[in-house]
């Protein structure tokens, strides 16, 4: 049973799986940017999450991307780590329901 569920327009059924797959593939990069303190890449990648999730009807991805971007800009390493973990958990435990 999925931990998180989101309802998405049936019109997006062809695009959402690929979108989520790409975001899941980027998670190790996001974590790597954090670990290596590559702040510019971390912020750029987080901005991608922030600016795209809502377009696919998955607002939580945008919210977490915005949080990571904001925390990275503020230099809050602990907050960034926690937000990346939340994003990972969300993406790994998300069930999309098409309506």
Structure notes:
The chain is built from four helices and two strands, in the order E-H-H-H-H-E. It is mainly alpha-helical and about 100 residues long. It has one domain (about 5-99): Up-down Bundle (Four Helix Bundle (Hemerythrin (Met), subunit A)). The longest helix is centred in the first third of the chain and has 20 residues, at about 15-35. The two termini are about 20 Å apart.
In short:
Helix content is 67%, strand content 10%. With 99 residues, it is mainly alpha-helical. The chain has a single domain, classed as HPT domain (Four Helix Bundle (Hemerythrin (Met), subunit A)).
What is the topological layout?
Elements: E1 4-8, H1 16-35, H2 39-52, H3 59-74, H4 77-92, E2 94-98
């Amino acid at each position: 049973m999925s931990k998180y569920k989101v309802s998405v327009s049936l019109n997006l059924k062809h695009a959402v799986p690929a979108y989520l797959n790409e975001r899941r593939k980027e998670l190790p990069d996001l974590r790597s940017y954090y670990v290596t303190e590559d702040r510019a890449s971390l912020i750029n990648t987080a901005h991608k999450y922030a600016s795209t999730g809502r377009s696919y009807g998955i607002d939580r991805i945008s919210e977490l991307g915005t949080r990571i971007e904001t925390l990275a800009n503020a230099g809050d390493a602990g907050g960034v780590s926690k937000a990346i973990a939340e994003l990972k958990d969300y993406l790994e435990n998300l069930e999309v329901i098409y309506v």
